[in-house]
From TrEMBL:
Low complexity: compositionally biased ranges: 92-110
Protein name: PhoH family protein
Origin superkingdom: Bacteria
Upper taxonomic lineage: Bacteria, Pseudomonadati, Pseudomonadota, Betaproteobacteria, Burkholderiales
Annotated region (Disordered), positions in chain: 92-141
Species this protein is from: Pseudoduganella danionis
UniProt keywords, alphabetically: ATP-binding, Nucleotide-binding
Domain PIN intervals: 149-285
Family, per entry: Belongs to the PhoH family. In the N-terminal section; belongs to the PINc/VapC protein family.
InterPro entries on file: P-loop_NTPase (IPR027417), PhoH (IPR003714), PhoH2-like (IPR051451), PIN-like_dom_sf (IPR029060), PIN_dom (IPR002716)
């Protein structure tokens, strides 16, 4: 199945009731948006819809009617709805879809209710449920008027991102006293949260140094420490601020005290846009229920919609060679002991490509397909390299052959010594671990390009934690590495010539070259000539990914494997995962590559379960 083109920006998502219906050449707005138009359409024929809309337009500007009038209007709308829909359905075959949008005239009331559909990106037929960050109405109003906002930060924002104080551009930041109190309660320990709390405390201490007491009330410039992007000021709660909250809320709870501060700030600073920022979903729900503007912290989101994540693969248009083959140049080179063909093409499609991105063209007229990789880009000129076919048995990697197009692309990256960083994404059963392990064994034991394989992963349990594990570091990590043991068993079974004793000796040799390490002891290490595999990388934060990738020394290759749909770490989403972060940041670098594996090859049961469960 050819991969669809990735849209340049997400399409606007509308509910089914918000789509305008077309009758003839005139657009009909939703009934909820124009009750007067629906009442007029009930009396008029479908051919006179334009006249009815013209009569109903002055009624939109009329003042509100009485309660009795509203009730009768609603009844009229409900009664008229079937007739309007029936008339629209009858007139639909006679409509001209190509000319309808140009001639459609919608009343001003309808324009204000119907959200415009983006024409730059196709509207997908099916959307997966993704968390799309939405701004509050207060923030949207401030953005429209160009006014600065006052963001009240919850404690979990600071503990999630210690640099969040400087991420609000020209807007001001307000810290309630309860936020500082909760920071003090979480500063002890060796966890990531405790380290972040201590870093925030040190940052606040540096901001407040050499500052008079009177200057604190006026606000401390956030650019004081050299952060030029932060043009706002930092305010502290310097006096008791109390506001009336519902009687049922406990007064002593920290979240309720922060909500009280937000309400009192709204009352004191009339005309100022005050917004609460919190990572706590329940906190935002309570704030919205009390009529207070609340938002999530958006700065940690790499992408708002993970459907737009770089896949590393693009399908060429059918007319690619006719438009880009005028000044075509081709030659052959011998790289890393393999002969490859190179093409230099020029055309309008080239600027949309990235270095090390895979391209393919599978003609439907029976011609041979083309699979290549972008090696260089200079304006509208690119150099494409043909790939090695790892689906053939003569090119098998440790007895493993590619079963689909994406696996072939992945093996070309894994077996390329010039590619230092590889990321593989895909659902369960797509072969991420098997391909990585087979490529590692082939380059460690056969070509001896690397000394050993180092395997690590995040120890985040899916269910309840079973407690401490006995033994050494490798013995403690062995239960987490069941996936690698399963794949090693598959790779060892392929060697049937040596018998049972030969397989046992091979297994001992392989295990002597594979080291299992814990993430907790990676700080300060340097890996030289190692094949490093980071499994389940979707559970890593961007900071942890940076710590791991910067461990690479000369001659080391790093692989990040994961499925962003299976995140077990709290406070991490598909958009803020460390795996999403590195895929987005490393795209286009000449020594890195990425492939999103699309089709599962584990078994027909696993493929069906991933679709229906």
């Amino acid at each position: 199945m050819p991969l669809p083109k990735i849209p340049s920006q997400p399409a606007t998502i509308l509910l089914a009731k918000d789509y305008p219906k077309a009758s003839g050449t005139h657009a009909i707005a939703p009934l909820a948006a124009q009750p007067e138009l629906a009442a007029a359409t009930k009396k008029a024929a479908p051919a006179k819809a334009k006249t009815a809309a013209a009569k109903a337009q002055p009624a939109v500007k009329a003042p509100a009617a009485s309660k009795a009038g509203k009730g009768s209007a609603v009844a009229a709308v409900l009664k008229a709805a079937p007739a309007v829909l029936k008339a629209a359905a009858a007139a639909e075959p006679a409509a001209q879809p190509a000319k309808a949008p140009a001639k459609a005239k919608v009343a001003p009331a309808a324009r204000s209710k119907v959200t415009p559909i983006s024409t730059k990106a196709p509207h997908p037929a099916k959307h997966k449920p993704v968390e799309v960050p939405l701004k509050s109405s207060t923030s949207r109003h401030a953005d429209q008027t160009g006014a600065t906002k006052l963001f009240v930060l919850d404690t979990n924002v600071l503990m999630h991102d210690p640099t969040s104080l400087f991420r609000f551009e020209e807007h001001d930041v307000y810290l309630p006293m309860m936020t500082l109190e909760e920071l003090d309660n979480h500063k002890k320990g060796m966890t990531e949260v405790a380290r972040n709390a201590r870093q925030v405390s040190r940052t606040l201490d540096a901001l407040m140094s050499n500052t008079d007491d009177d200057a604190i009330d006026q606000g401390i410039p956030l650019s004081k420490l050299g952060n030029k992007d932060a043009k706002g000021r930092l305010y502290f709660q310097t006096r008791i601020q109390s506001a009336d909250l519902p009687l049922g809320l406990p007064v002593g709870k920290a979240d309720n005290q922060i909500l009280s501060v937000v309400r009192s700030l709204e009352a004191e600073q009339d005309g100022r846009h005050v917004v609460l920022v919190s990572k706590d979903i329940n906190m935002r729900i309570k704030a919205r229920a009390l009529g207070l503007p609340a938002e999530d912290y958006f700065n940690d989101h790499v992408l708002e919609d993970t459907d737009l994540l770089y896949s590393g693969i693009v399908q060429l248009p059918d007319d690619f060679w006719s438009k880009h083959g005028k000044d075509l140049e081709s030659w052959q080179e011998n790289k890393n002991g393999q002969s490859a063909t190179f093409y230099r093409v020029t055309g309008p499609f080239i600027p949309s490509l990235l270095v090390n991105q895979f391209v393919f063209l599978e003609p439907k007229n029976g011609e041979a397909p083309f699979y290549g990789q972008v090696k260089q880009i200079n304006g509208k000129t690119a150099v494409l390299q043909t790939l090695r076919d790892y689906s053939h048995n003569k090119n098998s990697v440790w007895g493993v052959t590619a079963r689909n197009r994406e696996q072939n692309f992945a093996l070309n990256l894994l077996m390329n010594p010039e590619c230092d960083f590889v990321t593989l994404l895909g659902q369960a059963g797509t072969g991420k671990t098997l391909l990585a392990l087979a490529a590692g064994l082939a380059q460690v034991l056969e070509t001896k390009l690397y000394n050993e394989i180092i395997v690590t992963r995040v120890t985040v349990p899916v269910g309840e934690d079973i407690g401490f594990l006995p033994g050494t570091e490798e013995e403690k990590m062995s239960p987490w590495m069941g996936a690698f043991d399963d794949n090693l068993e598959v790779l060892n079974k392929s060697d049937s010539d040596g018998g049972e004793w030969g397989r046992a000796a091979t297994q001992d040799l392989i295990r002597s070259r594979i080291k299992i390490k814990s993430l907790n002891f990676m700080r300060g290490r340097t890996f030289v000539n190692k094949f490093l595999i980071i499994d389940e990388a979707q559970n890593l934060t961007p900071k942890q990914v940076k710590t791991l990738v910067t461990r690479a020394g000369p001659g080391t290759k790093i692989l990040c494997l994961g499925n962003i749909a299976q995140i077990d770490t709290p406070y991490l989403t598909e958009g803020s995962s460390g795996l999403t972060y590195v895929v987005d940041r490393f795209k286009g670098w000449s020594h890195s590559g990425h492939v999103t594996l699309a089709r599962g090859e584990r078994s027909r049961l696993a493929d069906h379960a991933s679709d229906v469960l």
